[in-house]
């Protein structure tokens, strides 16, 4: 039976400053099944990273605050846990890898020490066993000279190697959920192919679920089972990966898919989405995408559409798909 | 016969690093190690490669922002490497550059109007003409005249890149060197800028040298593409044949590594082992031999030269030496 590992319900994360409140994540609900890869796509500022930081409750030292909703992971609401209880979840049951492997590794500690830290804390292993586990993990992620690398510092490694170390660290406690926030964006294409290949292998050999956050539709198409498209803090479309690329419903999703140049496809002009993402101060009252949408109707400017099912396992936040349904 | 606007011959840039404090040891980073190519008038030549392959350094040498260690750059037949600085200053209006980071390449203390006026002032335009020129420029790149009195921080990334393009266009250049002009932008904005660059090319008869790491972007905008690896051009061809029939093993791997935005396509993927070697200590023989899946004995000792193996399709690989 497929069961839900993580369920996010009506999540609201706001950034509060003296003169304004920015709704970075606005009423976001989704779930991840066991051993499933869910992708969140969207452009900068759409709230995809803040969603993942909210799940990990890593917004403590930012102006960001989770003001509503529930995050249910293995039958407990993560938002009700104390900081101490949360620490037992982080890095243990939920692990995370970040975009920039240089800034997410501590530059003054050796690789070995950084990987062992989590292993000793969560798996309660002694020093020697933790070291053996760290070595095993480095070999698993395909690092050559793993034994020597344990005693090296992050600056001595290349970008691709550092990301492998991050993955080794994240997988070392066998997490149930791995959150990968743009894991290959900072890497070159041939190195990206290596890392994606590695993540696919790890997924095959464990039943870890992955939450893959990216702006790259190519990565989504190759890695994910289901996809959520976010725009200006909201989910605008949700579908299985095949359905999303074959039958995109929301004009924003269509625009995104059509605006990327495709290899071997010689079009003179690319479709593009006119205008820019609205700034939080100028958030449109109706549909947030209305000012850039080429199918905009009167209704879109005044009333905000809800996320509604258009088919089984496919939902979309657009008045257009509701009109079609009523016809 | 179309004319050649720019020709580069045996261009090299070696950076010398001091290594060791007392012994005065030196190491040489061969950022660009002998590249040859030319660009026809009105065409777009794309240079593609991964970080550290020397593509940006090549662009900077053409712009005379870096002095080549060796080699020649001919612009309309004249070697600009040997030109006295004063002559280059005059010639500069003919070749301009668009930079990657629209945040770092605009002076934050200057209003857009001042940024766009500068090239005209330097080249001694009449004050009255300048204001009409600035208005025209803003219109051409899709901005409004009221944007002229704003500062760069008031714009989004895409709009800033439009300002950068307007500045490059100001003096009616013949050649524009664009170094990763869209890689800092979101996808929906990226396509706006690519379309704008194509439109401008048509209206102003521009020639582009388009430098980028994203093969799909380069393929979209270019007529011909040069693939660089560790300071060398490994393959050069028009985009159709490069895509349909990549000859160099590196080009093949690069093309196969790109994730396809179509979940139905299951690609045969060539995954290269290891990392790009350091340009301070490049491999002997063919620079790619340490990662090449088809490596032969001769690759480890003899450096292959760029040769025309099919009409207008150049490749530097021993596999094609008969």
Automatic annotation (TrEMBL), chain A:
Q: Belongs to which family?
A: Belongs to the ABC transporter superfamily.
Record carries keyword Magnesium: no
* GO biological process terms on file: peptide transport
SMART domains in UniProt:
AAA
Note whether NADP occurs among the keywords. no
CDD domains (alphabetical) = ABC_NikE_OppD_transporters
Alphabetized UniProt keyword annotations: ATP-binding, Cell membrane, Membrane, Nucleotide-binding, Transport
What would you give as a GO molecular function for this chain, any one? ATP hydrolysis activity
Organism from which the protein derives? Viridibacillus arvi
Tell where it localizes: Cell membrane
Protein's name in the database: Peptide ABC transporter ATP-binding protein
Q: Which Pfam families match?
A: ABC_tran (PF00005), oligo_HPY (PF08352)
For this protein, the record's InterPro entries field holds:
AAA+_ATPase, ABC_Ni/Peptide_Import, ABC_transporter-like_ATP-bd, ABC_transporter-like_CS, Oligopep_ABC_C, P-loop_NTPase
Checking PROSITE patterns in the record gives: ABC_TRANSPORTER_1, ABC_TRANSPORTER_2
Q: How does it sit in the membrane?
A: Peripheral membrane protein
Q: What sequence ranges are listed for the domain ABC transporter? A: 6-257
Q: Name one GO cellular component term.
A: plasma membrane
UniProtKB/TrEMBL annotation, chain B:
SUPFAM superfamilies attached to this UniProt entry: P-loop containing nucleoside triphosphate hydrolases
Residues forming the ABC transporter domain are: 6-255
This protein's record includes keyword Transcription regulation: no
Q: Does the keyword Mitochondrion apply?
A: no
MF-aspect GO terms: ATP binding; ATP hydrolysis activity
- Report keywords, A-Z: ATP-binding, Nucleotide-binding, Transport
**InterPro entries, A to Z:** AAA+_ATPase, ABC_transp_ATP-bind, ABC_transporter-like_ATP-bd, ABC_transporter-like_CS, Oligopep_ABC_C, P-loop_NTPase
Query: What are the GO BP annotations of this UniProt entry?
Result: peptide transport; transmembrane transport
Q: Which family does it belong to?
A: Belongs to the ABC transporter superfamily.
PANTHER family in the record: ABC TRANSPORTER, ATP-BINDING PROTEIN (PTHR43776:SF8), TRANSPORT ATP-BINDING PROTEIN (PTHR43776)
What is the name of this protein?
ABC transporter domain-containing protein
Q: Which organism is it from?
A: Viridibacillus arvi
């Amino acid at each position: 039976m497929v069961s839900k590992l993580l369920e996010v319900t009506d999540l609201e994360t706001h950034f509060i400053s003296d003169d304004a409140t920015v709704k970075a994540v606005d009423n976001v609900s989704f779930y991840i099944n066991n051993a499933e890869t869910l992708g969140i796509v969207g452009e900068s500022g759409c709230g995809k990273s803040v969603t993942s930081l909210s799940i990990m409750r890593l917004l403590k030292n930012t102006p960001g605050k989770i003001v509503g909703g529930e995050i249910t992971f293995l039958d407990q609401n993560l938002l009700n846990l104390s900081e101490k209880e949360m620490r037992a979840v982080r890095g243990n049951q939920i692990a995370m890898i970040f975009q920039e492997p240089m800034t997410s590794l501590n530059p003054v500690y050796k690789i070995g020490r950084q990987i062992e830290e989590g292993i000793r804390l969560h798996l309660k292993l002694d020093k020697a066993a933790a070291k053996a586990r760290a070595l095993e993990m480095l070999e698993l992620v395909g690092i050559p000279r793993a034994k020597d690398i344990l005693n090296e510092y992050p600056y001595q490694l290349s970008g691709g190697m550092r990301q492998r170390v991050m993955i080794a660290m994240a997988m070392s406690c066998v997490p149930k959920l791995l959150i990968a926030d743009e894991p290959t964006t900072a890497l070159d294409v041939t190195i990206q192919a290596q890392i994606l290949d590695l993540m696919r292998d790890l997924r095959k050999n464990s039943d870890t679920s992955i939450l893959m956050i990216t702006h790259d539709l190519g990565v989504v198409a190759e890695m994910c089972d289901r996809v959520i498209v976010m725009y200006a803090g909201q989910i605008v479309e949700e579908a299985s990966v095949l359905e999303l690329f074959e039958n995109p419903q929301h004009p924003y999703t269509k625009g995104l898919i059509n605006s990327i140049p495709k290899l071997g496809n010689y079009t003179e002009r690319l479709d593009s989405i006119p205008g820019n993402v609205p700034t939080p101060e100028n958030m449109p009252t109706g549909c947030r995408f209305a000012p850039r949408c080429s199918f905009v109707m009167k209704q879109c400017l005044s009333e905000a559409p809800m996320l509604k099912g258009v088919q089984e396992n496919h939902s979309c936040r657009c008045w257009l798909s509701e009109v079609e349904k009523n016809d | 016969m179309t004319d050649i606007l720019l020709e580069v011959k045996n261009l090299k840039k070696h950076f010398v690093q001091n290594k060791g404090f007392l012994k005065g040891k030196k190491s040489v980073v061969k950022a660009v190690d002998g590249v040859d190519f030319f660009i026809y008038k009105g065409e777009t030549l794309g240079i593609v490669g991964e970080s550290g392959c020397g593509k940006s350094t090549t662009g900077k040498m053409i712009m005379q922002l870096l002095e080549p260690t060796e080699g020649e750059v001919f612009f309309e037949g004249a070697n600009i490497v040997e030109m006295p600085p004063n002559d280059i200053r005059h010639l500069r209006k003919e070749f301009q550059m668009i930079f990657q980071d629209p945040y770092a390449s605009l002076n934050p203390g200057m209003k857009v109007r001042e940024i766009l006026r500068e090239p005209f002032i330097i080249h001694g335009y009449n004050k009255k003409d300048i204001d009409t020129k600035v208005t025209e420029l803003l219109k051409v790149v899709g901005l409004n005249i009221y944007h002229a009195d704003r500062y760069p921080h008031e714009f989004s990334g895409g709009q800033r890149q439009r300002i950068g393009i307007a500045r490059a266009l100001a003096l009616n250049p013949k050649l524009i060197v664009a170094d990763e002009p869209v890689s800092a932008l979101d996808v929906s904005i990226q396509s706006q800028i690519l379309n704008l660059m194509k439109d401008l090319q048509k209206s102003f008869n521009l020639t582009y040298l388009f430098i980028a790491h994203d093969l799909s972007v380069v393929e979209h905008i270019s007529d011909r593409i040069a693939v660089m690896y560790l300071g060398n051009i490994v393959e050069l061809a028009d985009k159709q044949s490069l895509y349909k029939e990549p000859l160099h093993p590196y080009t093949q791997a690069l093309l196969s590594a790109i994730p396809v935005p179509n979940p139905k396509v299951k690609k045969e993927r060539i995954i290269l082992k290891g990392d790009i070697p350091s340009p301070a200590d490049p491999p002997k023989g063919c620079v790619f031999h340490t990662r090449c899946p088809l490596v032969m004995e001769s690759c480890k000792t003899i450096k292959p030269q760029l040769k025309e193996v099919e009409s207008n399709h150049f490749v530097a690989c021993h596999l094609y030496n008969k």
